[in-house]
């Protein structure tokens, strides 16, 4: 009888110890998974032997993690290959496109009949559209390759915007836009001038492609930095989803927008994010406003 009592007591102690150890091991697995997610390590989850079922569960967790890591690594390799392809293609397209433009300009200076001149005008217009698409593709590839790297310096945003507008006089006039830009004074921020220039150039291109009649450009100081806004008129019947304007590949539903890449404004937002700022769109009747907010000084990531 005594032996039975002792045996039962030992069994109860063992069961109690096992029941106490099980939740401790579960908490240990939870902590290891949380630490692994925060630190991004590759160590397997470990557990002291509690039962075959628990050990098998942990083995399945580790197997699932390894499978997920292998899939992520494969996706990253494919993403890098796609980036390299975009870079190579956009670069290779620029060279023959430059030659085509050169020959078209030579033809434009020669004596042509009216029908030939009209055909050349059509060809030059399509070449210009192709050039914009290639430029967007090249900018997107550059954005993927450079990532979040910034090279800040003091920039007068008002002067930078004025220079970009002057450099785009030809497409703005061709679009029939009355450009109004009267900054009250200098607006100086510490930011990456190359990235801001690309932002403004894309906003100018967007206005030339889709705006009508009037383009109002403003640069203003804010308590935390500066804001640059482009307001242009649109066809009131034209379907434009302002919540999707900065989405990649969004082009709207008209035949005119289908000739664009849908990358220009997505590049604007990505660059603004890299500079610690933001991009926003709003529409009031036929007036569409695209705004870029930049901080007074961009933070540099080591």
Written overview of the protein:
This protein has 302 residues and is of the alpha+beta class. It contains seven helices and seven strands; from the N terminus they run αααβααββαββαββ. The strands form two sheets. A five-stranded mixed sheet has the order 2-4-5-7-6, covered by helices on one side. A two-stranded antiparallel ribbon has the order 1-3. It is elongated, with a radius of gyration of 30 Å. The N and C termini lie far apart (74 Å).
The major pleated sheet works out as: 5 strands, mixed
Structural class: alpha+beta
Mean pLDDT: 77
Instruction: Output the strand order for the largest sheet.
Output: 2-4-5-7-6
Low-confidence stretches: 254-258
Radius of gyration: 30 Å
Strand content: 15-25%
Shape: elongated
Number of helices: 7
Instruction: Report the strand count.
Output: 7
> From N to C, what is the helix and strand string?
HHHEHHEEHEEHEE
Note the topology.
Blueprint: H1 2-39, H2 52-109, H3 114-146, E1 153-156, H4 157-167, H5 169-174, E2 178-181, E3 188-191, H6 193-210, E4 212-221, E5 225-233, H7 264-274, E6 278-284, E7 287-295
Parallel strand pairs: 2-4
Antiparallel strand pairs: 1-3, 4-5, 5-7, 6-7
Helix pairs in contact: 2-3, 3-7, 4-6, 6-7
In short:
The chain is of the alpha+beta class and 302 residues long. The protein has 7 helices and 7 strands, in the order αααβααββαββαββ.
Question: Could you list some keywords that capture this structure?
Answer:
alpha+beta, 5-stranded mixed beta sheet, 7 strands
């Amino acid at each position: 009888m005594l032996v039975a009592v002792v045996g039962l007591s030992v069994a109860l102690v063992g069961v109690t110890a096992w029941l106490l150890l099980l939740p401790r091991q579960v908490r240990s697995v939870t902590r290891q998974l949380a630490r692994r997610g925060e630190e991004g390590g590759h160590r397997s989850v470990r557990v002291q032997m509690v039962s075959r079922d628990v050990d098998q569960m942990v083995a399945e967790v580790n197997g699932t993690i390894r499978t997920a890591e292998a899939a992520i690594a494969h996706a990253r390799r494919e993403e890098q290959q796609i980036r390299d392809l975009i870079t190579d293609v956009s670069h290779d397209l620029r060279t023959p496109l430059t030659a085509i433009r050169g020959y078209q300009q030579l033809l434009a200076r020669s004596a042509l009949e009216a029908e030939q001149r009209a055909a050349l005008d059509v060809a030059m217009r399509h070449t210009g559209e192709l050039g914009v698409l290639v430029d967007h593709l090249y900018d997107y590839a550059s954005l993927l390759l450079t990532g979040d790297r910034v090279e800040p310096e003091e920039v007068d945003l008002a002067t930078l915007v004025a220079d970009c507008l002057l450099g785009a006089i030809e497409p703005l006039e061709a679009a029939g836009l009355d450009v109004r830009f009267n900054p009250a004074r200098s607006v100086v921020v510490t930011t990456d001038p190359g990235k801001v220039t690309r932002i403004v150039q894309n906003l100018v291109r967007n206005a030339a492609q889709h705006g009508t009649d009037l383009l109002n450009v403003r640069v203003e100081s804010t308590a935390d930095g500066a804001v640059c806004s482009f307001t242009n008129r649109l066809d009131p019947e034209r379907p434009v989803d302002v919540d999707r304007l900065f989405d990649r590949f969004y082009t709207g539903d008209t035949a005119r927008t289908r000739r664009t890449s849908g990358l220009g404004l997505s590049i604007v937002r990505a660059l603004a994010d890299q500079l610690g700022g933001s991009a926003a769109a709003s529409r009031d009747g036929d007036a569409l406003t695209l705004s870029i907010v930049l901080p007074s000084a961009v933070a540099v990531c080591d």
